[in-house]
């Protein structure tokens, strides 16, 4: 009946995502599998385009950036964490810092600077990001959070035999 007992087998299932161990080859194989990658990207694009006008606004695309966990990632220079650090509460950024980050990422996506991200921009930028992530990972597996339904989860599921899932509980 102690607190310790309660933690074993009775963890509250918080369905926010999984901590996964990814290595570069997993991510690269996914990003270079044209069919699987395009299909996953297109699906994500459609789900983000909430007003159905065929382009993504800053507001619409933001959930995708959040799923990519860019705060942890910084474009191909993943912040490698120990298990303890992963389990530690995240360092809170100010809203301004977070907004500035997402704005700069949006500008990277919006290559023709019309303040909208179209499907081609979305595909090509995500592919570059995934390849940069793959380069950053190399052969050193990275432990990171992957939201259910998020893009990196697609990469993980693409080659499940090299990946390990375990639930995040807060
Ligand atoms: Ca839209
Ligand atoms: Ca654009």
From TrEMBL:
The keyword Calcium applies. The keyword Calcium applies. Residues 36-71, 97-132 form the EF-hand domain. Keywords: Calcium. SUPFAM superfamilies: EF-hand. It holds the Pfam family EF-hand_7. InterPro entries: EF-hand-dom_pair, EF_Hand_1_Ca_BS, EF_hand_dom. This is EF-hand domain-containing protein.
């Amino acid at each position: 009946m102690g607190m310790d007992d309660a933690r074993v087998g009775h963890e509250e299932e918080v369905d926010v995502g999984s901590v996964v161990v990814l290595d570069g080859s997993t991510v690269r194989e996914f990003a270079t599998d044209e069919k699987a990658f395009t299909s996953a990207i297109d699906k994500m694009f459609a789900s983000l385009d909430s007003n159905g006008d065929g382009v993504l606004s800053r507001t619409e695309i933001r959930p995708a950036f959040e799923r990519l966990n860019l705060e942890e990632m910084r474009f191909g220079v993943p912040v490698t964490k120990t298990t303890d650090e992963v389990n530690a509460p995240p360092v809170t950024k100010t809203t301004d810092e977070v907004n500035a980050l997402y704005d700069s990422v949006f500008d990277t996506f919006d290559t023709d600077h019309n303040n909208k991200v179209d499907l081609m921009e979305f595909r090509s930028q995500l592919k570059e990001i995934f390849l940069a992530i793959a380069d950053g990972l190399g052969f050193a597996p990275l432990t990171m959070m992957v939201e259910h339904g998020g893009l990196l989860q697609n990469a993980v599921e693409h080659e499940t035999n090299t990946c390990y899932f375990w639930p995040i509980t807060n």
